[in-house]
């Protein structure tokens, strides 16, 4: 939500989280750049969006809530149509004894509150939540991404769609609004919603196998028609800035996507195999903050050894372990 500069200044003064010098510096920058004080506070990492929302909730005497999307019952969610929920960034996240618990990004929007109450009734308890949290809950309206994926590729399963074993792939096959592009987007979204750490796309004799690594275990998620393989790989190569006409050597790349307001980085690797090319993608959540060694579970002799080793002027520290054990998190 957008909070006025005067309110932000009042919140910062009352919280004592910034020194008078830091606040003065922010106000000087705000005067010269004409950017909202709220944006500057987050940009300089004095506070994040969640902390700022919590401060405002206390100031406005509105309860703050952080909702786990998987805990939202469907009977509560469907009280507000998806179109209206996305328009006002508002969701009903629970119903207790007839009282509807409503989470909003901007509970000060009286017009939105009045409109929603006409939809769901007057027995409503309003809460404030971060925009990111609400966007994640809004994804619940799409209850079956797997079914959407099946619908997108259904027309290709029984047709001779270009992009199978044919070396030639037209621009239409891999355009932004093509079925192949939608297929890639749904595969990525489904993987992220499934908390997968990796996506493996491999050609088989009669189909394309898609597997997700969830909790360290590879699980088959989909089987796509074999005639979409080359177009599918080419679309992923375009996103990763790789050479789409090079199929005989391994390639590595990366790209970023945004799902439910969170940014995810994907490391992409292609590898020639017997039936074509295999693609492996590692999913990294860039929204996760870095943890200290103590928070990661290092303590005692192990913490002392690692801390001592990483400040040495030469040598190296090896971080090893199976997929999902925390190598990247520890290195970060």
Please provide a written account of the structure.
With 332 residues, the chain is an alpha+beta fold. It is built from 14 helices and nine strands. Helix 10 packs across helix 11. The longest helix has 15 residues, at 179-193. The protein is globular. Mean pLDDT is 85; it is low at 161-167.
- Low-pLDDT runs: 161-167
Average pLDDT number = 85
Shape: globular
- Largest beta-sheet characterization: 6 strands, antiparallel
Spatial extent as radius of gyration: 24 Å
The DSSP helix count reads 14
Share of helix, binned? 40-55%
Biggest sheet strand line-up: 6-5-4-9-8-7
Distance between the termini: 31 Å
Q: What's a concise summary of this model?
A:
Helices cover 40% and strands 22% of the residues. The protein is of the alpha+beta class and 332 residues long.
Features of this protein?
332 residues, globular, single chain, alpha+beta, three-stranded mixed β-sheet, six-stranded antiparallel β-sheet
């Amino acid at each position: 939500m957008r909070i006025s500069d005067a309110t932000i200044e009042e919140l910062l003064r009352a919280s004592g989280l910034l020194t008078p010098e830091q606040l003065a510096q922010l106000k000087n920058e705000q005067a010269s750049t004409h950017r909202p004080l709220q944006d500057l506070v987050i940009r300089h990492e004095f506070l994040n969006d969640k902390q700022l929302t919590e401060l405002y909730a206390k100031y406005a005497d509105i309860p703050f809530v952080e909702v786990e999307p998987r805990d939202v019952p469907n009977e509560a969610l469907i009280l507000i149509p998806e179109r209206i929920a996305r328009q006002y960034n508002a969701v009903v996240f629970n119903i207790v004894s007839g009282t509807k618990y409503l989470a909003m990004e901007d509970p000060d929007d009286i017009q939105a509150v009045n409109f929603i109450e006409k939809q769901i009734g007057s027995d409503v308890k309003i809460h404030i939540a971060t925009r990111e949290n609400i966007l994640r809950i809004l994804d619940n309206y799409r209850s079956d991404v797997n079914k959407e994926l099946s619908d997108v590729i259904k027309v290709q399963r029984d047709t001779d769609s270009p992009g199978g074993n044919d070396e030639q792939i037209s621009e239409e096959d891999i355009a932004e609004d093509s079925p192949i592009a939608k297929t890639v987007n749904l595969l990525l979204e489904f993987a992220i919603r499934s908390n997968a750490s990796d996506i493996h796309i491999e050609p088989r004799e009669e189909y394309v196998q898609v597997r997700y690594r969830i909790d360290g275990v590879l699980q088959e998620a989909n089987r796509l028609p074999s005639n979409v393989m080359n177009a599918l790989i080419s679309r992923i190569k375009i996103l990763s800035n790789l050479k789409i006409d090079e199929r005989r050597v391994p390639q590595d790349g990366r790209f970023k996507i945004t799902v439910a307001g969170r940014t995810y980085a994907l490391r992409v690797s292609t590898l020639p195999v017997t039936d074509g090319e295999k693609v492996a993608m590692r999913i990294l959540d860039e929204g996760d903050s870095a943890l200290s060694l103590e928070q990661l579970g290092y303590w005692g002799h192990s913490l002392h050894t690692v801390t001592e080793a990483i400040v040495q002027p030469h040598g190296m520290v090896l971080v090893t372990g199976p997929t999902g054990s925390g190598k990247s998190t520890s290195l970060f």
